[in-house]
Amino acid sequence: MSGMKLGVLDYGAGNLRSVLNAFETVGAHASLVTKPEDFDGIDVLVFPGQGAFGDSVRILKKRELWAPLKQWLQEKRPYLGICLGYQLLFESSEESPGVEGLCAAKGRVRKFDPTADHLKIPHMGWNRVNWANKFSPWWDGLPNPTHLYFVHSYYPDVEDQSEVLCTTDYGVSFAAGIARENLMAVQFHPEKSQDAGLALLRNALKVLAD
Amino acid sequence: MLTKRIIPCLDVHAGRVVKGTKFLNLRDAGDPVESAKAYNDQGADELVFLDITASSDERKTMVDVVARTAASCFMPLTVGGGIRTVADMREMLLAGADKVGINTSAVKTPHVIDEAAEAFGCQCLVVAIDAKRNERGSWTVYTHGGRTPTELDAVEWAAEVCRRGAGEILLTSMDADGTKAGYDIELTRAVSEAVTIPVIASGGAGNLDHMVHVLKEGKADAVLAASIFHFGQHTVDEVKCHLEKHGVPVRHAPRLSTAH
Q1: What is the DSSP string of B8-41?
Q2: H-run or E-run covering B103
Q3: Given pLDDT bands bounded at 50, 70 and 90, which one contains residue B260?
Q4: Which residues of chain A have a CB within 8 Å of the CB of B95?
Q5: Chain B contacts of A195, Cβ < 8 Å?
Q6: What are the domain boundaries of chain A?
């Protein structure tokens, strides 16, 4: 994995320090992708976004990163999405009605229902992630379930159940991540989930390198 | 199930931890980064640095502490103390903090809550509320480290900061703080039921049953504790085992063969 070049998508909205630190710790070389040319020469695209669905689409378009990002996904090149980098893969979000997502996965992003069970929103803290057996290389070495760190108010309602990597319960049972060839995208924050999160990143890079 | 969070809090003055962390057996017990690593290894769910530095020069030291901690601890980190403006917040977030805590400045200029939520998303902002019982049977908000009473009712203020876009409330009972006689359960419950965001209870923990009570009857989502950890009374995992025995959902950090 040492030879793989990671590009971390930076559209100026969030703090990427933790993500860069985490990849450095698992021995991967990561650079920032801030302009369209930066997509050239990277092997894996990491999108660790945070912020609102609609705002981020607008900013990515303004910075001319939207088209290369879409193309990257259409060409099924290696992709690792975290939080917003997971939600944006879907078609739309209740957070920003009328805004089209990347449409790389079927389904829409929904808001947790605060009236159900007096749920606190955001869903913040360590929750149990149940892994699908068929995706075992991604969570190799981790217990099933694993507690991982979440911070979010919306969750993707995934249509294609065959892609569901893991599920988590918070008022509803939702897909906490999806996987397919050359792609893993998760709602939780591996870069904030101590050793379990770092182990997952190590696995992901290994699977994506194969 | 979402687990209840156990959050050690370190008071930092001019880049040094000021409360006893000797039991952690660190080479340098006053180094906040070393202390943070020790709590990370104990399986703390998050960590809070409270900067009690007076001068802004020394506050620059805190930015460096945060950056060094974020480089070696992969857990959520909150920084509070002396943060007043959106620019102050940005500085800490860019250094590697995940959340920033504000208290007095939120009361003085409530719109800073809206601005911060707009700039960084609500998940980044923790509003700290110091509350003290009054003769009317409710609680009054205090500022300036508990020295200055305000006109604000704590439960109403909590609802307002929630409406304005805070992501979390750090609630300290000034009556209970330092007594080791237990959290103010009634206050915590009243605030937790008045808001839709998570509430971290603080102040008064003297033993492990106090934590059970505030998480169950007080409906807190997390507990902040300082002395119970710093003086070696209990490790984070001991706390969690006790909570678990009493039906509180907690996380135990897994021992991984792949780690390191």
Answers
A1: EEEEEETTEE-S--GGG--SSTT-HHHHHHHHHH
A2: none
A3: very low
A4: 17
A5: 74, 253-254, 256, 259-260
A6: 6-209
Q: Is B28 a catalytic residue?
A: no
**How many residues can be counted in chain B?**
260
Q: What is the pLDDT of residue B132?
A: 96
* Three-state secondary-structure class, residue B168: strand
Cβ separation of B121 and A147 shorter than 8 Å?
Answer: no
Chain B: closest CA distance from residue A75 (Å): 32
pLDDT, tens digit, 9 for 90 and up, residues A32-78: 999 999 999 999 999 997 788 998 999 999 999 999 999 999 999 99
Domain A6-209 of CATH type 3.40.50.880: yes
- What does the pLDDT average to over B207-231? 92
Please identify which of the residues A83, A123, A163, A166 carries the catalytic annotation: A83
pLDDT, tens only, A142-167:
999 999 999 999 999 999 999 999 99
Contact between chains at B3 and A127 (C-beta distance less than 8 A)? yes
Q: Which residues of B touch A192 (CB under 8 A)?
A: 74-76, 98
At residue B21, the pLDDT reads 52
- Residue B97 is encoded by which pair of tokens? 């903090």
